[in-house]
Design a protein that fits this description.
mainly alpha, three-stranded antiparallel sheet, 12 helices, about 55% helix
């Protein structure tokens, strides 16, 4: 099993709630309700002005209106096991990763549309713990960074397809497809990977183009810049 303890707990809570309603097993919607009670999921969604507790209550109310299915039924645990089979070796499937996918299920999707929530923004906060904005394309030190050479960092996430990352790195940064595939896989497994060293203005221009392209496809791709190791002491950075 490659799921995190938090995800395992969420699946168990969903199964208990489903059987209390005479369902043979938890549906994806039951799992959404349970995932919205996870502390990390809730805190991250709150960044996108989506109060997880209120959304959980609304989804739960709609799920309770559904009649239990008749006959064989494949539910949320099977969905999680399918994700586990596709996950990078050695990396666990998180509650946030599953929640992000299941927010596109019919009931939460309809409720989020009514709230005016942007699905891409929700994926971004679930993936990175911050809202999309200027910090997508720069380090926390952006305002004090002088011109010079900087390292471009690709941040891994659980939502942007590896093939899409390869295309972005190839088309925007000129990285050969084979090398881009290695960068994409490394970033997903290790959460970050340096992909290039560029002058600051050029790095930010390319990062802007890449992230805007990704946003158009609801992919929470994140790229940042950081000073080269030799420059950190000069900038008084850790």
């Amino acid at each position: 099993m490659t799921r995190t303890p938090e995800l395992a707990d969420a699946v168990a809570r969903a199964e208990t709630a489903a059987r209390a309603g005479r369902w043979p097993c938890a549906s994806n919607e039951h799992l959404v309700v349970s995932l919205l009670a996870d502390a990390q999921v809730a805190s991250r969604l709150n960044l996108a002005n989506v109060h997880a507790g209120d959304l959980r209550d609304e989804v739960d109310a709609e799920v309770r209106k559904l009649p239990p299915p008749i006959g064989a039924y494949v539910g949320g645990d099977f969905y999680v096991r399918t994700l586990e089979a596709q996950w990078p070796a050695g990396k666990r499937v998180s509650a946030a990763a599953v929640c992000g996918r299941l927010l596109r299920s019919p009931i939460p999707r309809a409720l989020l549309v009514e709230r005016g929530a942007v699905y891409g923004d929700l994926l971004y906060v679930l993936a990175h713990g911050l809202m999309p904005g200027d910090h997508r394309m720069a380090s926390p030190y952006r305002d004090v960074l002088p011109d010079g050479e900087y390292r471009v960092i690709l941040h891994g996430d659980d939502f942007t397809p590896v093939g899409f990352v390869v295309e972005i790195l190839r088309d925007t940064f000129g990285i050969p497809a084979i090398d881009a595939a290695i960068h994409a896989a490394t970033a997903r497994a290790a959460d970050r990977d340096p992909i290039a060293t560029l002058p600051l203005a050029e790095a930010l221009e390319r990062i802007t183009k890449a992230t805007e392209t990704a946003r158009g496809y609801n992919c929470p791709l994140r790229l940042t810049v950081e000073p080269l190791d030799d420059d950190r002491p000069k900038l008084n950075l850790p």
